[in-house]
Amino acid sequence: MINIGKINKLNVVKQQGADVYLDDGTSGKVLLADRKLPANCKVGDSLDVFVYVDSEGHLAATTKKPLAQVGDIAWLKVVSLNYVGAFLDWGLPKDLLVPFSEQYHEMEVGRSYLVKVFLDEQNRIAATTKIDKLLSDESTDFEVGQKVSLIIADRTDLGVKAIVNNSHWGMLYENELFQPVRKGQKLDGYIKQIREDRRIDLSLHQPGYGKVVSLTDSILAKLKANDGVLMLSDKSPPEAIYAAFGVSKKVFKQAIGALYKQQLITIDKSGIRLVN
């Protein structure tokens, strides 16, 4: 079955002049809008294509990959406006419509917005800025330590809200952010905690001792590359530690503490040193 608004693997079944037709074996022929097969592709081969409904209501496909598929949330720029709504650049020749009914406020050309891509009742692909109603505040199936995909949203007094796996809201706390983030940015993150109210706390760093073990190897490698001396210690500012290793000060302190207990390093106010 063909999934409209998604990447599908379809077979090349016919080439007639400039027209190329694809099929999944069950849904009927789909015209390749590119009107040209990729190099080294021929009838009988399969292609990964994005499927949509064209202006005449027919299924069509393209080998071009959009910036978002149906069900995805993305940070997209408005390129034009008309009497039906706003149009977004999403990486395809035909821009993506946000109808006026799907806008919280009137959108402006040149500005970017967080939108969710969906299929309307006629199977046409559109987008909405009304994502709050489509996201849950409460976790039902996430686990602590689970790796997730994040999209950075708005800042709050506590930190930064992020969209988790295109389906839930989570929170990155300001005092645990050691790198700049911007609205619309896509990042990997981790479930740090599921609170009693089922709200999700997030981290950009893998929780648990496994992170510490990996970091100790990195610290030892950097010490060996710097003649056994590193001008970082448990007294160093968090920003300096993050710049060097991409981790929080807490994780760094755990790692050098483990190395110290193994008598592999010494620690003083200025830095750490390999034990000969």
From TrEMBL:
One term of GO molecular function:
nucleic acid binding
Q: Which InterPro entries match?
A: CvfB_fam, CvfB_S1_st, CvfB_WH, NA-bd_OB-fold, S1_domain, WH-like_DNA-bd_sf
- S1 motif domain: from which residue to which, for each copy? 69-130, 143-205
Kindly name one Pfam family recorded for this protein. WHD_CvfB
Q: Which family does it belong to?
A: Belongs to the CvfB family.
| PANTHER family linked | CONSERVED VIRULENCE FACTOR B
Record's protein name: S1 motif domain-containing protein
